[in-house]
Amino acid sequence: MNIIQGTVLESSESSNSIVSSHRGLSDVITNSSGTYTPPRISTQIVTTSKVWLKKLDGKDAEFNMSDFSVPLRVGHQIAIIYGAAEGIENGAYFGALNKSTGESAFDPSIHCNRLKEFGLYIPKNYYRNWFLRSFVIGAVIGLLPFVDFALGIFIGVILTNILAVILCVVKQVKGQNMLPELNKHALQTLHSAV
């Protein structure tokens, strides 16, 4: 974990609204009476928080704090924590401490870079790889003398994919339970960097 400290030179926050409409295919097909089914409209507001710091080395730098916005004003002293798991080159900023007020904030989401070293993230192509394994396991079951080959493939696919989902859920729950402890450790690191 690395800590960037500095004095707030400028901060800005902006919000954008994303409006989209959705119409399910079933609405069009099953509505044979000729009545009109209006689309569903949804709105999502995305807030972007950015801050300019005069770092301790005298250089100015901009940081995106949208995922962990902490209240701050020009002149406040803040520390931002950057982390990546072992072996990962590109980490992320995931928390900040306003040293002037004592307030802190952390990204509440689970990022691969923070949880990879604990084996608690779902890698790219996780389900695809398990699905391919399921055919191999099914073929092995199908080669047993007392099981029909097609039935073996079917059993292998069903059981292996159920196992893949269970393992995925267990990893996500473990990661979610570990997140408060990781943030507590990060906050202790931020406080010790005074």
- Terminal CA distance: 15 Å
**Proportion of beta-strand residues:** 25-35%
Number of helical elements: 4
Low-confidence stretches: none
> What's the total count of β strands?
6
What string gives the helices and strands in order? EHEEEEEHHH
Summing up helix and strand content along with how strands pair, one would put the structural category as alpha+beta
Radius of gyration based on Cα positions: 25 Å
Strand order of the largest sheet: 3-2-1-4-5-6
Write the layout of secondary structure elements.
Blueprint (H helix, E strand, L loop, with lengths): L1 E21 L2 H6 L9 E16 L4 E5 L12 E7 L8 E7 L5 E3 L5 H4 L10 H17 L6 H44 L2
Antiparallel strand pairs: 1-2, 1-4, 2-3, 4-5, 5-6
Please give a handful of descriptors for the protein shown.
6 strands, 194 residues, 4 helices, single chain, six-stranded antiparallel beta sheet, alpha+beta
Architecture overview:
- By secondary structure, this protein is an alpha+beta fold.
- The chain has two domains: 1-109, no CATH class; 112-194.
- 37% of the residues lie in helices and 30% in strands.
- The chain is built from four helices and six strands.
- It has helices at residues 25-30, 112-115, 126-142, 149-192, and strands spanning 2-22, 40-55, 60-64, 77-83, 92-98, 104-106.
- A six-stranded antiparallel β-sheet has the order 3-2-1-4-5-6, with helices on one face.
- A hairpin with a 5-residue loop joins strand 5 (92-98) and strand 6.
- It is elongated, with a radius of gyration of 25 Å.
- The mean pLDDT is 78.
